[in-house]
Amino acid sequence: MRFHVLTLFPEAFAQPLQFSIVARAVQRGQINIDVADIRDYTHDAHGTADDYQFGGGHGMVMKPEPVFEAAEAAERAQIPVILTTPQGELLTQKLVEELASSPAIAIICGHYAGVDERIAEGLATRPVSIGDYVLTGGELPAMIIIDAVTRLLPGVVGSPESVAGDSITTGLLQHPLYTRPAEFRGMTVPEVLLSGHHAEIDRWRRRKSLERTLEHRPDLLSTASLTNDDRRYLAGLGYAPPDAGQVEGRGADHAQD
Ligand code: ADE
């Protein structure tokens, strides 16, 4: 997978992508991250990449010419061209999965008050927001996209199960995790996890996922695949699941009917 990043701040990418799983993916040649400086494609001695807004208003706007030229220099093939912007489609695991199936993606990091609309209309194919808050620029969102996509690529994360069982990928938040010691400052690991009883462990984990999802992200429950047992458990916690979206046939560990 090749990432083409177009940014006014290429130095922002030097450190953050140089450790752990993403760095290892680069070393192994599983991903390639090209960072292009948009300012290299400006046309004046000052490297002017932004200008005042037509119509007036606060904040500068990124000029179209250098961004188009930087993108054209980066790749000729038809690839998704992401524009990081609070006005974009929300980044979800589903969108990350879709992006991970492409051989390459370009990411234009928006900055200042925003980008000239012709960049959004004539160049970017996917405006993407990482959340309902406004950052100072699109560099952190670009790194988040690179990180999330990279860990889905074959062979990048040790075990495929750890990716398949991800929080959110399963439609629910992840259950709690524990490691040694079994007791720490008076806090103990739930007995069931030490029991070696795999069906009981699966059942406990499933229920903890349901509890957490209900507490922190109840919106996910309307689209998650829930068994009748899940629904009964949630009902016992005071949640009334909508009728739509019921999917049966999960693994035997979950289907208690
Ligand atoms: N630029 C500024 N805020 C952003 C956000 N929430 N998502 C993507 N790009 C942004």
UniProtKB/TrEMBL annotation:
GO BP, one annotated term: tRNA N1-guanine methylation
Keywords linked to the UniProt accession: Cytoplasm, Methyltransferase, S-adenosyl-L-methionine, Transferase, tRNA processing
tRNA methyltransferase TRMD/TRM10-type domain sequence ranges: 1-222
Signal peptide region: none
Pfam families referenced in this protein's UniProt entry, alphabetically: tRNA_m1G_MT
One GO CC term on file: cytosol
InterPro entries, per the entry: Alpha/beta_knot_MTases, tRNA_m1G_MeTrfase_C_sf, tRNA_m1G_MeTrfase_TrmD, tRNA_m1G_MTases_N, tRNA_MeTrfase_TRMD/TRM10
EC class (word): transferase
Any one GO molecular function term: tRNA (guanine(37)-N1)-methyltransferase activity
Catalytic activity: guanosine(37) in tRNA + S-adenosyl-L-methionine = N(1)-methylguanosine(37) in tRNA + S-adenosyl-L-homocysteine + H(+)
Gene3D superfamilies: 3.40.1280.10, tRNA(m1g37)methyltransferase, domain 2 (1.10.1270.20)
EC number, UniProt record: 2.1.1.228
Keyword set includes Transferase: yes
Keyword Transport annotated: no
Location of the protein in the cell: Cytoplasm
Quaternary state and interactors: Homodimer.
Function statement: Specifically methylates guanosine-37 in various tRNAs.
Family: Belongs to the RNA methyltransferase TrmD family.
Protein name: tRNA (guanine-N(1)-)-methyltransferase
Provenance organism: Geodia barretti
